[in-house]
Design brief:
heterodimer; A: about 55 residues; mainly alpha; about 0% strand; B: about 450 residues; Growth Hormone, Chain: A; globular
Chain lengths: ~55, ~450
Amino acid sequence: MAENRKKSSTATILFAWLLVGIPLGWGVYNTLLNSMKLFQAPPAQSAPATPAPK
Amino acid sequence: MALFSFLDRDRSIADPGYSRWLVPPAALAIHLCIGQVYAFSVFKIPLTQLLGVTKSLPEDWKQTQIAWIFSFAIVILGVSAATFGKWLEGAGPRKAMFASATCFALGFFISYFGVVSHQLWLVYFGYGFVGGTGLGLGYISPVSTLIRWFPDRPGLATGMAIMGFGGGAMIGSPLAIKLMAFFRTSSDAGVGKTFLVMGALYFLLMMFGVFTIRVPQEGWKPEGWTAPVKEQKLVTTHKVDVNVAFRTPQFWLLWVVLCTNVTAGIGILEQASPMIQELFKGTIGPVAAGGFVGLLSLFNMAGRFFWASTSDFIGRKPTYFIFFTLGAVLYFFLPMTGANHLNTVKLFVTISVILLSMYGGGFATIPAYLRDLFGTHHVSAIHGRLLTAWSVAGVLGPVLVNYMREYQIQHGADKASAYQTVLHVMAGLLVVGFIANFLVRPVDQKYWLAEKRS
């Protein structure tokens, strides 16, 4: 195939990485946002009457 | 068929100017899509409310029936990878990736009809059987091609692709949630249309992989790279046929290595949310536990890249030694971080994310280990057969955790301390994996292919 005979351009390589990198980055960003809840969330609503010792 | 001749292996041989750095994104395009299977749980509740829309009606499907869709897909993944691996080696990655994309998208489309006609068997057949076949084909299709393009860094190359499988759930989950919210009306839960759109989107992204992937020309090697002169004991330059590899002790030792590593990882993944809440009752609630699960997913993905790349420098066997020694110690110590003992959430989270990184690392390093032992000739096919260990672990892990925990609770243990035995058994499993890894030796020359030197 004719298009294969030339050297892959940097733009092509960059485009290929962006095509998979953008959705992956979006997924990681969403997961990171979700993970933050571990560090931000207040203690459980259904906390027992005598909380576990700190 | 002439119509599909553009998919043939000889039509996808790279010309001299082709950059090997186009191959990992092509592989990632496949793995990011098929990794969606791990986000299938977002459909669990909506699929039980197809008729009631806001609540489940008695005629709606039950959660227990829905759970089988995922399990079926994972079992078929293993079966498909084991069955079609050898075909893939001859047909080439492009044809296999095309078949994978077609099956995976078709699975969504068939499931759409299952949802709109409320026929559960169509969803089992569509997502489970047809889609599951696409999963298996897609998982192994870029492996041997990546290894051939990156003889200098096989771990890095396969780690990148298999990292995509971990990342797929991170895309699939929010995408499905947003699409269902978009299509949701007062009379429709939006699941069917979501299946249609996801099938189409995934097919398009996978086609990018299909048309970007190339196989290197015979004898190609990276510019300026020469194969190491000094022979490494566990890295072969010979070829082993898949049907022969299947009969070697090395294959079964690696099968045990993968199975024990995955079973132990699933032990945490399966119970992550309830475990952290019960070990730290009153401190960690459901919202924070959801965050913990997200953090585990991130480290599962990152570990695939990190450990597989690291194995290029330290070797595959030492990498698994780290998983099994450090892993066993950490699993043993993990329950002691709970509120009943040290009561330190930070330490619990730190240990858990290290363990999950090694779980992902175990998946991502195995193709390079196989390449070291059996050569590149049938590495995808051998990898496909080895993935049956994953199917077994997928059943064994949850069963071990759930039944042992139930047994403990029924015999008077409280919920928090019931985890102790479970996690200690996981540590024991890793010791079994350690022994299997220890016993791995180079493949005997009686198993080499007749032409010997590659």
